[in-house]
Amino acid sequence: MFDWRDYLELASSLSATGPITIQGSEAASRSAISRAYYAAYCHARNYASHRLGFVASGGSRDHGRLRAHFQNIHMRSVADSLNMLRQWRNQCDYDDVVPNLPGVLTKSLNQAESVIRQL
């Protein structure tokens, strides 16, 4: 089974500056934010499915349903973090300009790590 936390490791690698030209670029930062979201989301989805009674449908509505599930079981901080991560990922995937991209990247990595640590 794939360990979704590996996406967070990849995201951290993409965000680092180094000899590879793509590292530290806007494309790498946007990709890192996206991977950080999916690391947290999929890890949380699997955790909730195995331990908290969440039943995933396999569709796009699961993103909102998962956040609602965490709110309903009084794990609001996980729900709030997933919400912020999704908003940042959507910005990076769809918007031409992402204000303060380095700051969003740092916050995304921290929030994803926080979700994983809480579960």
What this model shows, in words?
The chain has one domain. α1 runs antiparallel to α5, α2 packs antiparallel against α4 and α4 runs antiparallel to α5. It is mainly α and 119 residues long. The radius of gyration is 14 Å and the shape is globular. The model has no long low-confidence stretch (mean pLDDT 91). The protein has 5 helices and no strands.
Oligomer: single chain
Number of helices: 5
Give the termini distance in whole angstroms.
18 Å
Mean pLDDT: 91
Note the beta-strand portion.
under 5%
Query: Largest sheet, described in full?
Result: none
Write a brief caption for the model.
This protein has 119 residues and is mostly helical.
Topology readout:
Elements (H helix, E strand, L loop, with lengths): L4 H11 L10 H26 L10 H11 L3 H19 L6 H18 L1
Keywords:
119 residues, globular, mainly alpha
